[in-house]
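Students often ask why we bother predicting the structure of a whole assembly rather than each chain alone. The short answer is interfaces. A chain on its own may look different once its partners are present, and contacts between molecules only exist in the joint model. In this exercise we take two input lines together and write out one structure for the complete complex. Read the inputs first and try to guess which parts will touch.
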Amino acid sequence: MALKTEPFVLNIGPLHPSTHGVFRLLATLDGEVVIDIEPIIGYLHRGIEKLAEEREYQKDIPLCDRLDYVAAMSHSMAYVMAVEKLLGISVPERAEYIRVIMVELQRIASHLLAVGSIANEIGTFFTPFMYMFRERERILDLFDMVCGQRLLYNYMRFGGVSHDLPEEFIPALAKFINQMPGYIDEYDQLLAENEILLVRTKGIGVLPPELAINCSVSGPTLRASGVARDIRRCDPYSIYDRFEFDIPTRTAGDCYDRYRQRIEEMRQSLRIIRQAVEQLPQGKVNSQVPIRVRPPQGDVFVHVEAPRGELGFYLVSDGSEKPYRFHIRAPSLINLTPLREMIIGWKLADAIVIFGSIDIIMGEIDR
Amino acid sequence: MTAAGTISQASALASDWPGNFWLHLLVFALIILAFVILTVIILIWLERRLLGRIQVRPGPNRAGPFGLLQPIADVVKILTKEDTVPGWGDRLVFWLAPLVAFVPVLLVFAVVPFWNGALLADLNIGILYVLAVSSVASVGIFMTGWASGNKYSLIGAMRDIAQLISYEIPMMLSLAAVVLVAGSLSLNEIVAAQDVPYILLQPMGFTIFFIAALAEANRTPFDLVEADSEIVAGFNIEYSGMKFAILYLMEYSEVVFIAAIATSLFLGGWRGPFLPPFLWFVIKMFAVFFVLIWIRGTLPRLRIDQVMAFAWKFLLPLALINLVVTGAQVVFWPQAPYWSLVPINVTLLAALLLLWARFFRLGGSRVGI
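Now the answer. The structure tokens for the assembled complex follow.
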């Protein structure tokens, strides 16, 4: 005879250690098993799209930093590229290389945070997290060296970047990219073969490739399911066609693969940075673009491979100095689409790990 | 243990002790209390410092030299916090629960031998007493979960009960093997019988005991009761002020308790060369603490069904095999020299662990909705 039980609703968030900000999840539980979820977003809504439409183009760059605050370089680069496409201006060689170095460093920093939080949600008491923050800190120091900021950089400009690299940057960067592979091996020693981590992540929260494609999931979450789609390769922007790098994919699409995927992508980013430093040309880092730009009428869509997936900017210009429409295709938001299918039927503890392995940033979701 | 037995034993002790027996008892009880609380304070400091070292950060280093005064600063802070009771909770149970959780853990120390004969009550059923009394603490934890009227704490409390019931059994069986070898239930006599530490004679017993004790004390990787990434703080989520301090004290006293029991039963207790016995006891206890903190700094957390499966499919059969093997050794080969028993038992442990690791997988699949 089975005891009569009844499901209950557990409110997870908006203030919860593992909701990556202010995400709220109404989970209906039957004992420990999640039988239904209802995600609720909007606690971090700042109206960035509308704000951007009320400001001049130049003033929107810092706003874009604030979309995904752990990958600010990628976001401002995407926005700047969109405006450059509207204006039809080109970017000096050196600036392109600097941008690529920055964006790939940013990808490593962002993936370090993502993997660290996955490990944290599995329950390692902050140890891998702190190890990864040690290296993330060094990347932030590098950014600090370049633009004086550690989180929101405001470094990209129309037609280039705001400053040239300081003298001490390249040696510091070279030191970092020489040491980083060793650190990644260290994370693997700590996590990759850990028996408890394996039973907590292998086969958990599988995202089948068909579902991923139907939900237009992108980024590491998609590639962990075995779909080799990376904007850097399938629609090369900036100077990504000049570098040699692989698009790693995994097959199972479970939490473990999403974690491994990010580790592999960090190694590839290091490869790109290494090549970019070798090829870095001399020259200007900014073309002469007036501070107040008035793009011709028209619309433009630019997408880049941000750390969390395909980041798109859709701008419509009516010829004035403010964008008429400013739309963001935020990867975090769209990656959440299959969340319900992934979580339902797993235990509460798994739900947290699955949610964490998608790696979202609320600033980008709520905008 | 009957009341008459207690009294007769107490009077037997009284005849040994000069002066007022009850005064002695009181003083000794207070010394033990002070010892436990002092150890807890040092343990909290040690854990935070060591976790800091493990996690490439300094750890608390502001209050006093090496941050030694940090626990005191924490206590002062906690005492100034408002003592809240959730309006939808059960006031009486909420108030009672920290005490029900904390007192049994303290009571256990009555039978722990700090050095030869230096224990509050040398019960001849010492181990039984330890197991019985320490289980009561979980009732206290369940009361906290229930009285808080909070779903998170209720989930934590339910997990604690499930964990307790599962891990009590392998723990008892592993201790039963120790009892077989020592031929006594009294902790003092078990320590006295350890010419070699039982961790060598009973490697499997120690392994099982240690894992089960981790689960009993809700330490990583079995800290599901307060899994911060899932259920925020678990059972103590609604507690604040002094009540929280007592729950915190209870958690760390449980760590001291499992370290003390592991020391007495498996590591040779107060026995050791050169140094005074009490110092040996403390040194061994801190060695256990170090391993516990190390585990906490390294391992992730298991899921509740995996925790259950681990107890019933892994620990319980191994504990039974260990009990049977130990029984056979005691009955058929009572004069066995240590140098032959130790390698046999260690080989057996290794073989069984490998066998189980090969054929047994923790898993758990998706539930069809």
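Check your guess against this: Strands of chain A lie at 8-12, 24-30, 33-40, 156-157, 160-161, 298-306, 309-317, 323-329.
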